[in-house]
Amino acid sequence: MKSIKHLLVVLFVSIATLASADEGMWLPFLLEKLNEKQMKSLGMKISAKDIYNINAGSLKDAIVSFGGFCTGEVISSKGLVLTNHHCGFDAVQNHSTLDHNYIRDGFWAMNNGQELTNPGLYVTFIVRIEDVTKAALNGVTADMKESERQAAVDQNIRNINAAAKKESYQKAFTRAFFEGNQYFLFITETYTDVRLVGAPPAAIGNFGQDTDNWMWPRHTGDFSVFRIYAGKDNKPADYSPDNVPYVPKKSLNISLDGIAEKDFTMVFGFPGKTTEYLPAIAVKQIAEVNDPAKIAVREKALAILNSFMRKDEKIKIEYADKYALVSNSWKKWKGEVLGLTRTDALDRKKKYEAEFQKRVDANPQWKSQYGNLLTEMQAAYTELEPLGLARDYHTEITNRIELFSLFNRIKYVQQSRGKPDYDNILARFRDSLNQFYNEYEPVVDKKLFEGLLPLYISPRVKEVTDFAKWANDIYDNTDLDNGKATLALAQSDPDALLQSLETDKAYAAYQEIIADYNTNILPRLNTVQARINQLQRTYMQAQIEVFKEKAFYPDANSTLRITYGKVNGYTARDAVKYDFNSYLDGVIEKYIPGDYEFDVPQKLRDLYVKKDYGVYGKNGRMPVCFIASNHTTGGNSGSPALDASGNLIGLNFDRVWEGTMSDISYDPSICRNIMVDIRYVLFIIDKYAGAGHLIKEMKLVHPKGGR
Ligand code: ARG
Ligand code: ASP
């Protein structure tokens, strides 16, 4: 009887672990230990060593952090890198002029000489990862204050990084995982000569824009192509015309055989930030307090931007980017609230906590260690609520008002005076001023000030009754909203510009708002936050101990992770079921001639009419996007989607609306990542752009025996 019970427990446990097979952003160097068996049982045909191996080329050697904000992958032996259109967009925009409008028309280098350099852009490879937890926590004791602990850990980390074995051209850094319960060292190689090779027109690369963003069905060819250049020794080197295409340790093979529903997939990349281990009360705050506040500020900001962009073509162009940026998170948070609500995330957390408490209470040692943990968190988060809300309003509002960001930049230059690299800082400041004023309209900014500040919560702002008057007072009394004059002054007499800040009325108002926040909110916020950090760390440790049967993955922190799942449609809501892939037919269905978001280039329409898909089409149709249950987040954009054998089948770029709460609570029934099918990427490069020479660099394979 006892052994049957034991068997049942084991069975239940393994089912429980498998049930959440799709959830998790796993550490590549722990795959063999934690995931390999499960991955194979789900269909993976390669080994964990093929994915991560420090002694031989493995898939991880083809993956790069692209500019620190996205992911890219190497797809040829000559350093060709693929990432998203929205990840490479800045580069495309910087090279665009009215005569060469690469955003509108796309850009394709027909030989290496035509590739375009991008100062500031870099890609980073991970050479190896090591667990350095013991050394990082050396001398740390349980009774230390949070600030003391942090100081001790910081010092340990400096020592670890300095002692790390690496080549002179490599870097070492250490990051905290599991809320500071573990620390891993990363040895990296960063290449800074990254050239633009090609990008489709925005009508393909950003087809559907904000309306389709975070949505399925999707029809976006969200990709762009770069090339890594290295010194003659293949090592990282600053830009030089003498640099040569980088020869990678590994480049991805590309499958032409496409995908079928239920196929195993994995996504390899650099997810930015998740918070999967919050207590129920924190999730409730996000859904009911923080997200709604942030949504409200952005809603107002978007309405203001929109009112100008609608009636003024110039403003529309200038603010298109900013609008997309504001709208992106706004839309995501709305989906997040919806998803948390629909999937009863709160209820699930509460049940999980009840089970946690039950197990803790049944074990005397745990009870003394963790018995009050949930109650203490409840208290701390309750204290956090008004402060967190004030923080969100503060950040959201001050970030939207561009004059404020200008002040910050000027302040920074002022504070850098006398430093050795001051000349550089000043030069960069002048460049950034140029960019700033190219896309800045004082009338818009003033309206944002007037419209958003009434939402601000603070004693000082609460006194104000006439926001229009306040805005007038400020914007009529600053010279900094005058681009021409400010730029001229930055050139002729930068000191005078820095000086002018001191007498600027707008700056005075800004300082008042900041001082108010810094004295009335920030100190209390930091105190509670430090307590919460400590509690979350203990809670994390406790969960790992108490739920021994469960494999835990650390929250995303912009480090290299692998996630796996399967190609799969989903049921979005009652009676609405989505297929797993989309076709070019859908692009044509959405086509609105001349539209800002849904125009389709003539050439693409022609290819559609002729069904001229080459080897990339399937049964007379051209696949465009597909979805799967891989657990991804911001930063995973540009990540490769790989098949069971590690071949490239797609490029990750988004998630579905109903599942954006996966950053807080993953639900396999509706969380889906969106990828552009690699065959669509190749079709656009080859058939649309006529850049077949790039295809010749790649290794195309037929893992399913297709032709
Ligand atoms: N939602 C995706 C992400 O979070 C894509 C954003 C870029 N596309 C856009 N239309 N704004 O980054
Ligand atoms: N679009 C996101 C990115 O740019 C990916 C996501 O949030 O799913 O990284």
What does this structure look like?
With 707 residues, this protein is an alpha+beta fold. Among the domains are: 54-252, no CATH class; 401-520, no CATH class. It is 48% helix and 15% strand. It has 28 helices and 21 strands. A hairpin with a 5-residue loop joins β18 and β19 (648-655). The protein is globular. Arginine is lined by residues 86, 206, 209-210, 213-214, 324, 328, 634, 637, 654.
Give a brief outline of the structure.
By secondary structure, this protein is an alpha+beta fold.
* Radius of gyration using CA atoms only: 26 Å
Number of helices: 28
Structural class: alpha+beta
Percentage of β-strand residues: 5-15%
The description of the largest β-sheet is: 10 strands, antiparallel
Q: What is the first-to-last residue Cα distance?
A: 57 Å
The overall pLDDT average reads: 94
Question: Are any ligands bound, and if so which?
Answer: arginine, aspartic acid
Unreliable stretches (pLDDT < 50, length at least 5) are: 7-19
Q: Note the overall shape.
A: globular
Number of strands: 21
Helicity, as a percent range: 40-55%
Fill in the keyword field for this structure.
28 helices; about 700 residues; seven-stranded antiparallel beta sheet; alpha+beta; single chain; binds arginine; binds aspartic acid
